[in-house]
DNA sequence: AATATCTCCAACCGCAGGATA
DNA sequence: GTATCCTGCGGTTGGAGATAT
């Protein structure tokens, strides 16, 4: 397809063994599998010719038979891929036209990472092409600090879907629609935590904390670059995206548990996220980023994959999981959040390494505190950056304040002492249904979701536990030294702070 | 010119779902 | 009902070329 391919094939041509595939040749190349039966790696033109010939004679499909009948030493999968991506006669060659590019963006805004479906909408283009284009584009825009979707695409997608589908409206300069959540039209400049320093220097675990919660707070997908989700199994994540999209309901309870007070908020982060990631049944299938049922696989040091919400989350959907979106959407942003390697596993401490949320911070700050105090030399994160200690000290008090909470809930050293259910029960005023119960998905939205967003929107929720986030006061983040200002990441902090300030202003207005 | 880094993309991998035995 | 095979999908990787230092 590309020149590169041809070049590659030309190179391969010299070693082409297709007419007389010798085991010696194959194994020497190291690209044979199954004991030298199947070839891997770049296709040669001879192989292409064989495959084309085979398909012309036998038609597409039955790819596993290709090897048997054509003499190709390729697995059926490889044949299908080669045919679909390079040999199909109806394939367009060359780079995408501007129209195609725009179409891809539009489609992605609607569909998320549904490359095959997008390819179906773009004759002559393959899912692989589109995927590569998109990934490249994402990276480019991330670097440039640009929103992933242009404003017009956002609004178009928005309009196409539903008046209430507002999550995609992150365009700049757009007049906020008062119908929407006051937080949904906010554009936040792309902030890469990679450069922010928070995750690397202030606190490794930070990156995981506000991720879903920021999203759930209605920050636009354009701030996706700064919003970090846990990495779930890609296949499951995407497959689940095809299911209903109740929105960010899973994290709403988290927000509801916030208070202006950072310390309370920190606890809420902990408890809610514990629940979110550990209770896969609870997670709405649409909250791709959080539905990694395999939350236990979450390391504390991540190369995190960022999942964006679709443009289709509606206010109503957020308020009620009973309203799945017909067009699930998400996108993956290859935001790699490089964090210092965690030594939790080696530390011997119990650590909340699996949730990576604020509890991790608090736990680790506690550990750091203890390290300082006891000089035992064993810390949960022994190779944390120097200023990590400083930053953790910012959280120090919070962790102290919640020692009792942790102690009362199980393992005094680790928030993992909480079971999902216990955490949830402890921190949410939900009665009756256990999160461990399978029917949670059905029952929880009724009991949980409405108050979450309603309360956040109205900002007048006065739960007895005072753990609700008043979304009208997103400034709680600003006042909490959340980002641990330093010269290194001050700029990004202010960007984000301004954005949150704008959010607040909108809400107030 | 040499080296390092980045970009692009073809191909691979694992998984899930459907079909069939 | 279960096992197996086939196919398709989406994420990831590795290498070649391009660009920067």
From TrEMBL:
Residue ranges constituting the HTH myb-type domain according to the UniProt record: 38-87, 88-142
InterPro entries in alphabetical order: Homeodomain-like_sf (IPR009057), Myb_dom (IPR017930), SANT/Myb (IPR001005)
Molecular-function GO terms, alphabetical: DNA binding
Start-end of Basic and acidic residues biased regions: 1-14
GO aspect biological process, one term: regulation of growth
Subcellular localization(s) per the UniProt record: Nucleus
GO cellular component terms listed in the entry, alphabetical order: nucleus
Top-level division of the source organism's lineage: Eukaryota
SMART domains reported in the protein's UniProt record: SANT
Comp. bias intervals (Polar residues): 20-31, 371-397
Listed Pfam families: Myb_DNA-binding (PF00249)
Residue ranges of every copy of the Myb-like domain listed in the record: 38-87, 88-138
Record's signal peptide: none
Name this polypeptide is given: Transcription factor
